[in-house]
Amino acid sequence: MDIYFRQTWTDRRLSFSIPGQDVLSLSWLSLNLVWKPDTFFTNGKKSHLHRITVPNKFLRVRYDGFITYSMRLTLKASCPMHLRRFPLDSQKCPLHISS
């Protein structure tokens, strides 16, 4: 599946006060300077981060330290299939996320 995986959290250390500026959109190069949760997909088998000319990542910081982090991923995940009523069955395949 192709997804835009977005995470939000608050880091008060990044709060700022710039008159007329409530949100800062930062380059993907700034990601190495900001703490990020170590999030992973527990049932993921393979993933690919899209890097067309630069990595497809986005970071936005609000004045109060509220952070929005987004990245585009292609994932392959394992999913148990129940084929008792094949071809009339339906499947649910949740994506399990952990940190």
Automatic annotation (TrEMBL):
Main location: membrane
Keyword Membrane: yes
Protein localization: Membrane
Domain Neurotransmitter-gated ion-channel ligand-binding span(s) in chain numbering: 1-99
Any Pfam family the entry gives: Neur_chan_LBD
Official protein name in the record: Neurotransmitter-gated ion-channel ligand-binding domain-containing protein
Lineage: Eukaryota, Metazoa, Ecdysozoa, Arthropoda, Hexapoda
Gene3D superfamilies assigned: Neurotransmitter-gated ion-channel ligand-binding domain
Membrane topology type: Multi-pass membrane protein
Organism of provenance: Timema podura (Walking stick)
Spans through the membrane: none
Keywords linked to the UniProt accession: Membrane
